[in-house]
Design a protein that fits this description.
globular, 2 domains, alpha/beta, 4-stranded antiparallel sheet, 387 residues, 17 strands, Rossmann fold, 7-stranded parallel sheet, binds nicotinamide-adenine-dinucleotide
Length: 387
């Protein structure tokens, strides 16, 4: 990095401010650094970089999984021709093999692998994490926390590779759990993450990784982008095996009940807990928009639907799609998570003039159909990805 210091006339009140010009990765960068007491706070002026060309290298980690795979598909459909998809799972377990995409099996919690993966990358999307629904994140907190290695090494490798834009997939689990004790929740806005009391394990990992991304901008000038996803669902995601989330689990349970001619369903908790669910197409569109909005650099933002439903309502919607009515039983000892959670979309609407808007009825119908096909394929002895 070639860095120069420029002397400027600084008002008395900001005696210790200075402007820094940096030249790296083919671009000029300017930062205003203001020293307050012993803390150095950096406010960078954003230089408009060149637009990403169709043959620039885009790296997506976690691409054998649900959101990463769908993101590779999204960029391919937009005409990007140089996409590197990375996941530690063997290729036959990936949900999607997008034609024309370079697929690599590597563990990105390993530092050397991250450098290999980021080499030449213009944009990096880090979607890799050891994660799952409530059943997984409440039982495997250590596994969730260990995902800190992934982002720690990936963000550094991207920075060293001169990556222009780095995206990190955070979660609504980073929000203060004390605000989510009632099913009739006030929707969570971005400032509700602090004072921090995140979900044990998974949520804290997300919060600390967010902070890494924020500081790689403030201190080092790499443009980072952070979205806090609220429950994502849709085709090509986990639907069985213990890591699946509520919409996929409910679809599978209804399909199973019909198939086994046992018209009953077991629901975790009282069914009164509430959530909002975002359809996958909205999620990948949102990731793309957020990562290309310079006003959102190093600024965590909600990416979720604001259509709040109870789990009982979710089950009723799936029953309606399937054309059945099931006898419900409730497991009050099952992992539940918070009592209620919704996304406040004021900020995203203000910044992007858009919010995730696929209705749950519409998205669930597509998801139910896809899970039905997977269920039948597995029953017929075919190999299908479940998670
Ligand atoms: N799906 C949701 O509802 C949701 C909600 C909030 C946040 N997120 C976040 O979005 C991201 C993607 O989630 P998803 O739903 O696609 O999950 P997913 O489990 O389907 O995909 C994650 C992928 O990361 C891979 N992976 C894990 N550790 C790895 C490693 N060390 N090296 C390489 N690959 C590794 C897994 O094999 C998996 O294929 C994650 O960061 C997750 O925490 C998802």
């Amino acid at each position: 990095m070639d860095m120069q210091w420029t002397k400027v006339d600084i008002p008395k009140s900001k005696r210790q401010a200075r402007i820094v010009h940096e030249h790296w990765n083919g671009c000029d960068h300017v930062a205003v650094i203001i020293k307050l007491n012993t803390m150095e706070q950096t406010k960078r002026l954003v230089e408009k970089g060149p637009a990403t060309k169709k043959d620039d290298l885009i790296v997506i980690t976690g691409a054998g999984g649900f959101i990463g795979g769908n993101l590779a598909l999204h960029f391919t459909k937009k005409g990007f021709t140089n996409i590197r998809a990375v996941d530690k799972k063997p290729l036959y377990e990936w949900y999607l093999h997008v034609p024309g995409v370079e697929n690599i099996c590597l563990d990105v919690s390993n530092e050397a692998n991250c450098h290999r993966v980021c080499e030449g990358a213009v944009e990096v999307y880090n979607l890799a994490a050891d994660m799952g629904g409530m059943g997984f994140i409440e039982r495997f907190r250590v596994e969730c926390l260990r995902s800190i290695l992934i982002n720690t090494h990936m963000v550094e490798a991207a920075y060293k590779a001169g990556t222009r834009r780095y995206f990190y997939s955070s979660s609504a689990c980073a929000y203060n759990t004390l605000l989510q004790k009632d099913p009739n929740v006030r929707a969570l806005k971005e400032s509700d993450a602090y004072p921090a009391m995140a979900e044990r394990g998974y949520g804290w990992e997300k919060l600390v990784s967010e902070m890494f991304c924020e500081e790689y901008w403030h201190e080092r000038g790499m443009k980072t982008f952070i979205a806090r996803f609220h429950n994502v669902y849709g085709p090509n995601g986990t639907w069985d095996g213990g890591r699946e989330k509520a919409p996929a689990a409910m679809c599978r349970k209804v399909i199973e009940a019909i198939d086994k001619k046992d018209l009953s369903i077991n629901i975790w908790g009282t069914g009164e807990q509430t959530r909002s669910f975002m359809y996958i197409d909205d999620c990948v569109k949102g990731i793309d928009m957020i990562t290309h909005c310079d006003d959102l650099i190093a600024t965590p933002i909600n990416l979720g639907s604001s259509e709040l439903v109870s789990i009982n309502t979710l089950v009723s919607k799936v029953e309606k799609i399937a054309g059945v009515k099931l006898k419900r039983s409730y497991n009050l000892n099952a992992p539940l998570g918070v009592a209620g959670r919704n996304s406040d979309n004021t900020f995203i609407k203000q910044m992007l003039k858009w919010e995730p808007d696929t209705t749950l009825d519409k998205g669930l119908a597509v998801t139910y159909k896809w899970i039905g096909q997977q269920y039948q394929a597995r029953k017929a002895g075919k190999r299908v990805g479940i998670g």
